[in-house]
Amino acid sequence: MSRSSFFLHGFFSQTFRQGTTHHHKAAVETHQLAKMLIIHDRRHFKHLSTIFGRLSLAIVIGSIAAIRFDSFTWGYTSALVTIALQFARDVFEIKSAIPYVDLDGEIQQEVRPTLDVIGHVILFRWLFPILGDGDFFQRILVRLNADCLTWDSSFTERGENGVEWITNFCKRWKIQTDPWIWEKRLKDYETPNDFFARRYSKKSMPSLGNGIIVSPATAVMTWFNRTSEMPKKLKNEDWNVDESIGIPNVHMYKDNSCAIFYLSPTDYHCFHIPIEGIIEHVELLNQDRFSVTVKPYIFRNVNILKRNRRAVIVIRGSHVRVAMIIIGGITVDSIRLDSKIRKGSSVSKGQFAGNFARGGSSVALLFDTSFTKNQQRRHVVQAPCISKFKGNVVGDLDFKVSVRQNVGDVVVESSSSSS
């Protein structure tokens, strides 16, 4: 525990014991700040211990080699080789993306270009643990985002051939071009973001599912039957549902179903409304800082529901309330909400809600069915879409879903079956 954290905890304890109304609010706020500092200290210490463990291994092997061959050069070389092997292992691990079941029932993996993977390893496996998530790391993210901030400039202003740029972009990320399923002709896209936020043509737009809840995006979906499963499954105790996410009355979503949808750079980058209902809340959060990656390998170290730039939209439907968290990723921090998405508006299932600009990103759905519960029965959200994939899929795999595809229904369980 840092000195600042220790001092704040001590101050909180002393103030709270006084029991005065005057100090109660300040004491609670001080305790919350102390808690945040302690969590940050523990997390950074964990990251530092990982990187120092790697460096210590290199030093030990280098020292053994130096003694064995009585040569400083041998020791130095052995230490560098050890570090290089650990770096190569990180590259291989991130390059080998977590498999998922695609829309045809086949097992696939995300496309990750090698140079992008190397950049992620340097930034998030080596620099992030050492630097922490402070001002200096933010400066690095600002530099990385510099080029992406020009993606709203026309191809002419950028001195590029738009058709050639889009063709190369599609080849790199394996974006479908044959048949052409997008709203505009290739030559009609005017800026990089114009193409990145492309819409489906009317005849190619995925049909609307007949369930209560549809997918907000074309993405790889990770489903959790309970929010309490997230810390264990994602191997990070910080993946809990609390007020720091930015959802009003967040306690109502605890221990209900939830889902995380990961959009790779290949995917359609518009997001849609998952249920029919009334918007109760809309808010943009963490807009003053750039986001870290949303690729699943970061989940062990970072809860992106709390850390990244995001928009929180709460929609109340007839059977379920949904908190939709739209999350920006590294170089994809522009969350552009449609003008119709505002508090008090009625929205329809599958309605266009907005888009991201540039790169990968995520959407999370948290469900609250508390207002449909009583003593005899319990309403829960289940994901029937998983059982509809071709073949018998064995194992704990994620699933690729199409935007507007049915991903959830509200069903009734007896109170005994839910216990």
Summarize the structure in words.
There is one protein chain. This protein has 419 residues and is of the alpha+beta class. It is 35% helix and 20% strand. A 10-stranded mixed β-sheet has the order 2-1-15-4-5-13-9-8-7-11, with no helix packed on it. It has a 3-stranded antiparallel β-sheet with strand order 3-16-14. A 3-stranded antiparallel β-sheet has the order 6-12-10, with no helix packed on it. A hairpin with a 4-residue loop joins strand 8 (310-316) and strand 9. Helix 2 packs across helix 4 (114-131). The longest helix has 49 residues, at 21-69. It starts with a helix and ends with a helix. Mean pLDDT is 82; it is low at 1-41, 390-394 and 415-419.
Report the portion of residues in β strands.
15-25%
Task: Give the number of helices.
Answer: 10
Q: What helical percentage do the residues reach?
A: 25-40%
Count of β-strands: 16
Stretches with pLDDT under 50, minimum 5 residues: 1-41, 390-394, 415-419
Topology pattern, helix = H, strand = E: HHHEEHHHHEEHEEEHEEEEEEEEEH
